[in-house]
Amino acid sequence: MIRIVPGDIVDLMIGPELYVGAQYRAELRAKYGLDQPIYVQYVKWVGQIVQGNFGISLRNDEPVLGTILRRLPLTVELATLSVLLSAVLAVPLGVISAVKRNSAADFFVRLIAMVGLSVPNFWLAAMLLLVTGVILHWQPRLLLVAPWEDPWTNIQQMAMPVVALSLALMAIVMRMTRSSMLEVLRQEYVQTARAKGLAPHVITVRHALKNAFIPIVTVLGVQLGALLGGTVVIEVIFGLPGVGRLVIDAINARDYPMLQGAVLFIATMFALVNLAVDLTYAYLDPRIRYS
């Protein structure tokens, strides 16, 4: 699809101001392999991938895989913190909403979920920057710090991006938790546990919540995989040099090897996360067995 966009890296390198003959342009395209048909370029790229070679960036002549691996820790940290924050807040609220169905607490939780689903994350990110920068006159250090170097500074730098990403995810997890818990609480074994006189919190946590976790884990896993490639807007707004920002830069520069490598890497990570979620089912539900 990116090859449908007018212009390639040769056009961007030369620019509209310089006049360069067609022969020189053709030589540059031949240098980068862009003179060959698209299917030939694709077959060669697949052959390189099979050998573990993601190619060389057309923009800066750096190995594609090395560049992705340098950007990956930031995106993984951002996605993981967003999922963890969403789970820590959404699961208890969803359980409360299900246990106290149609109460004031239930309506309040459902209102939060509705707001979370309705507010775009890019708007929330802009409002967070406005409030902290213009009103509170506070902003974290601009130079990104790794969590193992200075954890407190890293938390300050990641706080606003994580909140902007977590709101919608929290709403989804909250609604799923409520729905799943309501279904489990109607099961016969829960009624049996109540008849035996078990404490309500024991029934909720030990019996109901564990069985209700399967769809919740599914949502969290899918969202974690999606966030590995879906942090593009947030990384651009906050100036974070992650994989999402790398994809945007590759699109703007028509850096085909970098874009193809990043998309393939994100898709692979998404598949691995889903595999981990499927394996988790066996722990949550003893009835599930994988041969």
Topology:
Blueprint: H1 9-14, H2 22-31, H3 38-50, H4 64-99, H5 104-118, H6 121-135, H7 151-185, H8 188-195, H9 200-230, H10 232-238, H11 243-253, H12 256-284
Helix pairs in contact: 4-5, 4-7, 4-9, 5-7, 6-7, 6-10, 7-9, 8-9, 9-12, 10-11, 11-12
What does the main sheet amount to? none
Strand fraction equals under 5%
CATH class of the largest domain: Mainly Alpha
Total number of helices: 12
Number of E-state strands: 0
Low-confidence stretches: none
| Span of the ends, CA to CA | 40 Å
In the CATH hierarchy, what is the architecture of the largest domain at level 2? Orthogonal Bundle
Domains, number: 2
Alpha-carbon Rg, integer: 24 Å
String of helices and strands: HHHHHHHHHHHH
| Assembly context of the chains | single chain
Q: What structural class do helix, strand and pairing data support?
A: mainly alpha
Estimate percent helicity: over 70%
Mean pLDDT across residues: 83
Given the C-alpha coordinates, what overall shape results? elongated
- The CATH homologous superfamily name of the largest domain equals MetI-like
Report on the structure:
With 291 residues, the chain is mainly alpha-helical. The protein folds into 2 domains: 2-50, no CATH class; 69-284, MetI-like fold (Orthogonal Bundle). It is built from 12 helices and no strands. It has helices spanning 9-14, 22-31, 38-50, 64-99, 104-118, 121-135, 151-185, 188-195, 200-230, 232-238, 243-253, 256-284. The longest helix has 36 residues, at 64-99.
